[in-house]
C-alpha cells in the first residue's frame, strides 16, 4: 500500500470512527466519520490523517496554510536526514576554536566530502566569544568551496547552537562553480590590466 503524502486528503475516509483534533491542536474526542466530515465542511477545513495505527486513527482538522507549513517542515526534515546508504559524519566544536584547530577540522571535512559523505557541523557559541557562527560556517565552506555545498543551510537549533550539513557538489554544480570562478578571475584580471594601463 503506497504511503499517502501528508495533506493529500479527499473525502474518502476508510475508518468509521475517528479521533479528531481541531486546528488549534485540541482534542475533540472520538466521533463518527460523517460527523467529522460535517465539521470539516462547516469550518471549511481539511481532515488530515496524523496517526493511522492509533485506535481509533487520529485525524486533524487543518487549514490549507497549516497543511502547507507542515509539508514544508516535513520536507526540510527529510532533506536533513541522510538517505539510506549515505554515511553522515559529525563534527562539533566551539566558536572560540583556534585557527589551527579549525584548519585541522576543515581538512578532516574535506576528506569526508571527497568520499561523498554528508558532514554535519555543529558549532556551540563559546561563553566569552562573540564570533558570528554563521561567518564561521561560511569560512569553512569557503575553504571547501571546490568540493562542498550546503545540504541544509546553517540554522540555530537551540540557544547558542548552530548546525549545518555539507555535502559533495554534483558534477553540474562543480562545473557551474568553476565557470563562475573563471569569470570572477577574468574580471579581476581585466581590472588589473586596466589599472596597469592607467598607471602607464
Describe the structure.
With about 200 residues, the protein is of the alpha/beta class. The chain has two domains: about 15-80, Ubiquitin-like (UB roll) (Roll), CATH 3.10.20.80; about 90-170, Translation initiation factor 3 (IF-3), C-terminal domain (Translation Initiation Factor IF3), CATH 3.30.110. Helices cover about 40% and strands about 30% of the residues. The chain has helices at about 35-40, 65-80, 100-115, 135-145, 170-200; strands spanning about 15-20, 25-30, 45-50, 60, 90-95, 120-125, 150-160, 160-170. The strands form two sheets. The chain has a four-stranded mixed sheet with strand order 2-1-4-3. A four-stranded mixed sheet has the order 5-6-8-7, with helices on both faces. It is elongated and about 85 Å long. The mean pLDDT is about 85. It is found in: Mitochondrion.
Q: What is the strand and helix layout of this fold?
A:
Elements: E1 17-21, E2 27-32, H1 33-42, E3 46-51, E4 58-62, H2 64-80, E5 88-94, H3 99-114, E6 118-124, H4 133-143, E7 148-158, E8 161-168, H5 171-199
Parallel strand pairs: 1-4, 5-6
Antiparallel strand pairs: 1-2, 3-4, 6-8, 7-8
Termini gap: 76 Å
Mean of residue pLDDT values: 85
Q: Helicity, in percent?
A: 40-55%
Order of strands in the sheet with most strands: 2-1-4-3
Approximately how much beta-strand content do the residues carry? 25-35%
Number of domains: 2
Secondary-structure element string: EEHEEHEHEHEEH
Oligomer: single chain
What would you say the CATH architecture of the largest domain is? 2-Layer Sandwich
Large-scale geometry: elongated
Family: Belongs to the IF-3 family.
Keywords: Initiation factor, Mitochondrion, Protein biosynthesis, Transit peptide
GO molecular function: ribosome binding; translation initiation factor activity
Protein name: Translation initiation factor IF-3, mitochondrial
Amino acid at each position: 500500500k503506497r504511503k499517502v503524502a501528508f495533506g493529500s486528503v479527499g473525502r474518502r475516509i476508510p475508518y468509521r470512527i475517528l479521533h479528531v483534533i481541531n486546528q488549534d491542536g485540541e482534542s475533540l474526542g472520538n466521533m463518527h466519520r460523517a460527523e467529522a466530515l460535517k465539521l470539516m465542511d462547516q469550518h471549511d477545513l481539511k481532515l488530515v490523517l496524523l496517526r493511522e495505527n492509533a485506535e481509533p486513527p487520529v485525524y486533524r482538522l487543518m487549514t490549507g496554510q497549516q497543511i502547507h507549513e507542515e509539508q514544508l517542515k516535513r520536507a526540510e526534515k527529510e532533506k536533513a536526514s541522510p538517505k539510506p546508504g549515505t554515511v553522515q559524519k559529525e563534527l562539533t566544536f566551539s566558536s572560540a576554536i583556534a585557527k589551527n584547530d579549525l584548519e585541522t577540522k576543515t581538512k578532516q571535512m574535506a576528506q569526508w566530502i571527497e568520499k561523498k559523505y554528508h558532514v554535519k557541523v555543529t558549532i556551540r557559541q563559546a561563553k566569552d566569544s562573540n564570533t558570528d557562527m554563521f561567518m564561521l560556517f561560511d569560512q569553512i565552506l569557503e575553504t571547501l568551496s571546490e568540493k562542498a555545498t550546503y545540504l541544509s543551510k546553517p540554522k540555530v537549533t537551540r540557544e547558542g547552537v548552530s548546525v549545518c550539513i555539507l555535502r559533495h557538489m554534483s558534477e553540474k554544480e562543480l562545473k557551474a562553480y568553476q565557470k563562475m570562478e573563471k569569470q570572477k578571475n577574468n574580471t579581476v584580471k581585466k581590472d588589473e590590466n586596466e589599472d596597469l594601463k592607467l598607471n602607464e
